[in-house]
Known about the structure:
The protein is of the alpha/beta class. It has helices at 41-48, 71-76, 94-104, 109-122, 138-149, 168-185, 196-202, 220-224, 227-234, and strands at residues 3-12, 15-25, 30-34, 56-61, 64-65, 79-82, 156-160, 188-192, 205-210, 213-218. Helix content is 37%, strand content 25%.
Amino acid sequence: MSLALENVGVAFGGFQALAGVTLAVEPGQVMGLIGPNGAGKTTCVNTLTGFQRPTTGRVRLEGRDVSALAAHGFRREGVARTFQAGRLFGGLDVLDNLACTGVGLGQRRAAAEHEASDILGWMGISDLESRPAAGLPYTDERRVAIARALMGAPRYLLLDEPAAGMSEKEAADLADLIRRIASERGIGCLLIEHNVGLVLSVCAHVVVLDGGRVIEAGDRAAILASDAVREAYFGANVEVA
Length: 241
Ligand SMILES: Nc1ncnc2c1ncn2[C@@H]1O[C@H](COP(=O)(O)OP(=O)(O)OP(=O)(O)O)[C@@H](O)[C@H]1O
């Protein structure tokens, strides 16, 4: 069981954003995806969620070829994501932001509200229920976007830079939440982050992209020991403590 890219290439005109990328997100685990600016991380997430079609290769969900599925099809099949910007409905309160997603997934309104309330409670942010989304502080907006992605019990959750702009304490709390999403809800998570320390603290397995290619994959120790990773981030011949 996995959500996987199989030898995927993505070209934008003549520009090859991804080339021969193979990776798999497994249920109940948090996988990290790191790499310098422009490495192709967001393009990977877009391809794994139907926002971008692969030019070559395949996207597989539990073994099925879903390369041609549209984004709403991925969501209905249990693949949820968050965006770099929260993308909440500013005019609605927090509960309705979640409930709308449930209704969009085919739930009745009352069931959607019930699930929304449960998720906010599970995350410890029930106090936000009736707050208008437009007025939320940045960190709360991020947390609500994650809560909304949990509607409909997805099997996979792809998080695109969820800790951007957070303090160290807020990022540590977020790390705890992501661990709980995987361990308590059994969801397979893919975490894209510029905060490499956060990724290494949360993820058992990390994939490193550079120039649209996978240059390293492995556990924390393998990533820290990799010359290819050091070179991609800091240039050749730089010692990193
Ligand atoms: N729609 C597009 N059209 C043309 N080029 C694109 C498009 N989307 C992404 N690219 C290019 O593809 C490359 C990979 O972009 P992507 O956003 O996936 O990288 P990233 O690793 O997420 O970068 P960052 O860390 O800066 O967000 C970049 O050079 C980017 O400019």
